[in-house]
Structures are given as structure tokens and as C-alpha cells.
Amino acid sequence: MTDTPKQIAKKVNKYAFSGGRATIEEHREKGADLEVDIPYQYLNFFMEDDEKLAEIGQKYGSGEMLSGEVKKELITILQEIVKGHQERRAKVTDEVVREFMSVRDMNIFKK
């Protein structure tokens, strides 16, 4: 959660196993194997737009979309998530942590 946008892109492009085929020609003919494609699986979890996800799945599975395009979608989403986390984390001060960790009455058993 501390990676820069550039580091996120590099990691996804380098390490995220693709379900795409060995060549562009083969990929265009057979399409991607969505069951083993890690970037697509991550999109299933992180993408909030179900219609766009279905469109990506259809296009990628049919060979119309390439693995680099799917990775680009994932990178954009992950960069936004991490940026938001980093911004919120920067607002946490020692005082906020002390308050959060302090012993206090939670009033969970009172009626």
C-alpha cells in the first residue's frame, strides 16, 4: 500500500500471469483463458462497474482485447485505490492512534 503508481504498473505488467495466448494471432483466434488470467480475476474483485467488467470479459475472452489492455484497466483501478489509501493514511496522526487504541467504554451490552 506504499507503492508509487509507477511501481504498481511495473508489478502488474511483470508479475500478473496472463491468460492470453502465446502469439497475438493465436490470441485473436482463441481468446484469453479468463479462469487463469490474474488481472481479469483482480478486475472481478476491484471493478465496480459490472457492465464494463462483462464487456471486458466478452472482448478479452473472444480475442478482441489483448492482455496489455486488461492489465492497463487493472493498473488504473489499483493506482486509484492505493492513492486513496495513502491520502487517508497520511491524515492519521499519533493522537488519532492514541484515541483509537485507548481503553474506553463501548456500551455494547447496555440496554
Protein architecture, described:
- This protein has 111 residues and is mainly α.
- Helix content is 65%, strand content 0%.
- The chain contains 6 helices and no strands.
- Helix 1 runs antiparallel to helix 5 (67-90).
- The longest helix has 24 residues, at 67-90.
- The chain is elongated.
- The mean pLDDT is 95.
- The succession of helices and strands, N to C, reads HHHHHH
Percent strand:
under 5%
Query: Which residue ranges are poorly predicted, with pLDDT under 50 across at least 5 consecutive positions?
Result: none
The main β sheet shows up as: none
Average pLDDT over all residues: 95
Helix content: 55-70%
- Dominant shape: elongated
Number of strands: 0
Helix and strand composition category: mainly alpha
Radius of gyration: 20 Å
Give the termini separation: 40 Å
Helix tally equals 6
Outline of this structure?
The protein is mostly helical and 111 residues long. 65% of the residues lie in helices and 0% in strands.
List keywords for this structure.
mainly alpha; single chain; elongated; 111 residues
List the topology elements.
Elements: H1 5-15, H2 24-30, H3 38-46, H4 50-62, H5 67-90, H6 94-101
